[in-house]
């Protein structure tokens, strides 16, 4: 049921490094046209890093691994593109619709295609107030079972970072601070929470991932790569903006799958675009690291 481009198929068959990329970040994570520019740039960074990029989405109902420039443009600009997590995959596939895949569904499709390294911006997690809303992203349950290493910039404080880390521990997911002892919070290098484990090189990441899977421990690994210092928004500054966005969301009664896209868009508005600049910088930074990890993984 998968459509895989010849380039990605050949790379996987010959053991060359491949990096999966998600599409919700394009369709529902950033405004047009910065979203399509980011998608193109990130693919270029992965290539420059010596790996083949495989952006993943559902197009005309077909899970598609590796996208054309026209596909990226469609995902970035067509309002009919649904946000598709695991739950939503059967709906878009059976109806022949377009879907932008989240971390969870991108991981699953990447694994089905044989791709083990995936680069994104931020993970979903346990939302603030989850003790009454039950809003916990399927990204976490997917990390528990699907064997893909996910490079991200940590977790935004639109989520409850402490509960998200607790949940990942329960689910058996190693969370690695890359070059840091502190778990990063997406826009900021700090979060106030320690990184559960620290690694300092792509080779160390590849070795840990290999050890996990060789032990028969299925499931993902989170590589939390802090935003570069020159691009970060100080935690106090972005904290105020996030609080306002959360209050606006509550007032509007927005819940469920619309929560994350609403908050991301609102934070861009309130920050006057500063959050978007930081978001793009951290994804590019993650793409560099992801390519290096994919190279190390392929070399083993
Ligand atoms: N965080 C971001 N940007 C994003 C997302 C999260 O900074 O684009 C997207 C990712 O696709 C992630 C999804 O998997 O939101 C989580 O949504 P939910 O909480 O509905 O599972
Ligand atoms: Mn949710």
UniProtKB/TrEMBL annotation:
Superkingdom of source: Bacteria
Sequence positions that bind Mn(2+): 135
Residues that hold substrate according to the record: 83, 103, 137-139
Cofactor(s) required, per the database record: Mn(2+)
One of the record's GO molecular function terms: hydrolase activity, acting on glycosyl bonds
Catalytic activity entry: D-ribose 5-phosphate + uracil = psi-UMP + H2O
EC number: 4.2.1.70
Presence of the UniProt keyword Kinase in the record: no
Gene3D superfamilies assigned to the protein according to its UniProt record, in alphabetical order: Indigoidine synthase domain
Alphabetical UniProt keywords: Glycosidase, Hydrolase, Lyase, Manganese, Metal-binding
HAMAP family in alphabetical order: PsiMP_glycosidase
Subunit structure: Homotrimer.
Protein's job: Catalyzes the reversible cleavage of pseudouridine 5'-phosphate (PsiMP) to ribose 5-phosphate and uracil. Functions biologically in the cleavage direction, as part of a pseudouridine degradation pathway.
Family stated for the protein in its record: Belongs to the pseudouridine-5'-phosphate glycosidase family.
Protein name, UniProt field: Pseudouridine-5'-phosphate glycosidase
Organism: Nocardioides pinisoli
Gene: psuG
